[in-house]
Automatic annotation (TrEMBL):
Family: Belongs to the transposase 8 family.
Keywords (A to Z) from UniProt: Coiled coil
UniProt GO MF annotations: DNA binding; transposase activity
PROSITE patterns referenced in this protein's UniProt entry, alphabetically: INTEGRASE
One Pfam family recorded for the sequence: rve
Annotated signal sequence range: none
InterPro entries per record: Homeodomain-like_sf, Integrase_cat-core, RNaseH-like_sf, RNaseH_sf, Transpos_IS3, Transposase_8, Transposase_IS3/IS150/IS904
Keyword Secreted annotated: no
Entry-linked Gene3D superfamilies: Ribonuclease H-like superfamily/Ribonuclease H (3.30.420.10)
Coiled-coil ranges per UniProt: 114-148
Protein name: IS3 family transposase
Keyword Coiled coil attached: yes
Native organism: Marinobacter fuscus
Domain Integrase catalytic as annotated: residue spans: 301-467
């Protein structure tokens, strides 16, 4: 394979440039050099930065590398030398100057881009650090949550129902401190672990000092006797006084005032009670019984009509002072529909039993599971009424004695009835007049009155299940209105149009509500 000198290569490659601008094929035929060799020489010249035309004949179509090489090669030339160079290369000086400006602009853009990239890199670094901090916080929170999940149950078993001021045995303290420390090792904070263990941070630090669990020192404390403590002789005198024939049947609340009337004072009533209790002489005697806690209200749930009814009787005043008519009214707790009513001149279990049977027949729920709730009135607990409920398969439910809130649905219905604008404040003239008025009220209440607890649908619509379609239509109208003028709504949601779920009679109270009561 022949070897060519560098001068020979440069002379041959120069023919590719203007003014000759020969093609690779023509140059190969003229010089007797293979086309592949010429391609290799041209590629090598480009890598070295020399301006060598490509396959495109026009100088404006040269590659960026060739243009940059031309700018570098002509940078130190004078105007005359540049003109001569351009004629030799088949260029115009204006082209070289334009290429130079473009190169400078490219350098400037490159510097600006580098500056922007540097700023973006700094911002990215800040964001990365922020995300790393958040990730660490979340990992710590997750570890703490996992560590605290089992702590309340274990700590509850260790401490039981712990009350403020109660002596905590040392074994329980050790177990609780160990659980808290295990939670801390797993990633929980000390404050959170103490809170889950139902002790304060101050209690933990009092229990655990100097690397050991401290025992409760209160049982070992030496306490001085109070200066005003009753002496043994005084206590014995109080006992003998209480057990004397004169006071043997009286409580301290009667003994102390009696002695005061006679000018005698041994101790206060509370001291009498305390001394009797210390000597096991304070008990309920005879028919006296310890106070019993009031029972919880009976709770019932209704998820559909004809599952839970409430009924009661209310007075309807007549125009004659002292004379009343009696309105018997049955209400479906789920739908608030009045399912039955009658007005009579007396209260009677027989009337109530007959009305109940007619209500069941009208609602077509005879011998179906039904709970009937009422208060403890005489007609409600009459033997006739109880026998009829048993015959019809109705489960009775009663309020607690003297607690009207347990029958709140009927009480609320009676208030609505007596607060109507057309309510005759002067009383009803006759029984038929009262019955006609109640007929009109029931029709209005069941079919026209939009109940606030039913999302403002009528009891009849709720009873028949029409409320679902009605509320869905309202929701569509509201959504369309919001789409038309969203600025009037701001960030607020549309009105709640979800159907009301199951209804509960006397729902169970939470622990906080029980304590408040």
């Amino acid at each position: 394979m022949p070897r060519y000198s560098e001068e020979r290569k440069a002379t041959v490659l120069a023919k590719l440039s203007p003014p000759q601008s020969m093609t690779i094929a023509a140059l190969s035929r003229e010089e007797g050099i293979s086309e592949q060799t010429l391609y290799n020489w041209r590629t090598q010249a480009r890598k070295e930065g020399r301006p060598v035309p490509g396959s495109k004949a026009k100088s404006d179509q040269w590659s960026a590398e060739a243009k940059l090489a031309t700018v570098i090669e002509t940078a130190a030339l004078s105007e005359e030398e540049l003109s001569q160079y351009c004629r030799e290369k088949g260029l115009y000086p204006e082209q070289v100057r334009r290429w130079k400006e473009e190169s400078l602009q490219g350098f400037q853009r490159s510097a600006e881009r580098e500056k922007q990239l540097r700023k973006k890199s700094q911002a990215d670094q800040k964001q990365i650090k922020k995300l790393e901090r958040e990730l660490r916080h979340k990992e710590k929170a997750l570890a703490e949550t996992a560590a605290l999940l089992v702590l309340p149950k274990k700590a509850g078993c260790a401490l039981g129902e712990r009350q403020r001021g109660r002596l905590t045995p040392t074994p329980e303290r050790r177990k609780t401190v160990k659980l808290i420390q295990e939670a801390m090792v797993s990633g929980a904070r000390l404050v959170a672990a103490c809170e889950e263990a139902s002790i304060s941070l101050r209690t933990y630090r009092r229990w655990y000092r100097e690397g050991t669990v401290q025992s409760d020192q209160r049982p070992e404390a030496v306490r001085p006797e109070p200066a005003n403590k009753l002496s043994k002789e005084e206590q014995e005198k109080i006992l003998s006084t209480c057990n004397s024939a004169r006071y043997e049947s009286l409580p301290p609340s009667q003994i102390v005032p009696t002695m005061l009337d006679e000018g005698l004072y041994l101790a206060s009533e509370s001291s009498f009670y305390r001394i009797l209790k210390a000597h096991d002489q304070l008990h309920h005697r005879g028919q006296s019984h310890a106070p019993k806690p009031s029972r919880e209200a009976t709770t019932h749930h209704a998820s559909g009509p004809c599952e839970l009814w409430s009924w009661d009787i209310t007075y309807l005043a007549s125009t004659v002072r002292g004379q009343f008519y009696y309105l018997y009214m049955f209400e479906d707790v789920y739908s608030r529909k009045i399912v039955g009513y009658e007005v009579y001149e007396v209260e009677s279990g027989d009337y109530a039993a007959g009305l109940l049977q007619r209500c069941l027949l009208r609602e077509q729920c005879l011998h179906q599971p039904l709970v009937l709730h009422s208060d403890n009135g005489a007609p409600m607990k009459a033997q006739t009424m109880k026998a009829k409920m048993e015959e019809l398969g109705v489960t009775p439910s009663y309020s607690r004695p003297r607690v009207s809130n347990d029958n709140a649905f009927s009480e609320s219905l009676f208030k609505t009835l007596k607060y109507r604008p057309e309510w005759p404040s002067s009383g009803f003239k006759s029984l038929s007049d009262a019955r006609r008025w109640v007929d009109r009220f029931v029709t209005w209440y069941n079919t026209e009155h939009k109940h606030s607890k039913l999302r403002f649908v009528t009891p009849q619509q709720r009873h028949t299940g029409e409320d679902v379609a009605i509320l869905a239509q309202r929701q569509r109208v509201l959504e369309q209105a919001k789409q038309r003028t969203p600025s009037r709504w701001g960030g607020r949601q549309i009105r709640n149009c979800e159907p009301v779920g199951p209804t509960t009679l006397n729902p169970e109270k939470s622990a906080a509500e029980k304590n408040a009561a």
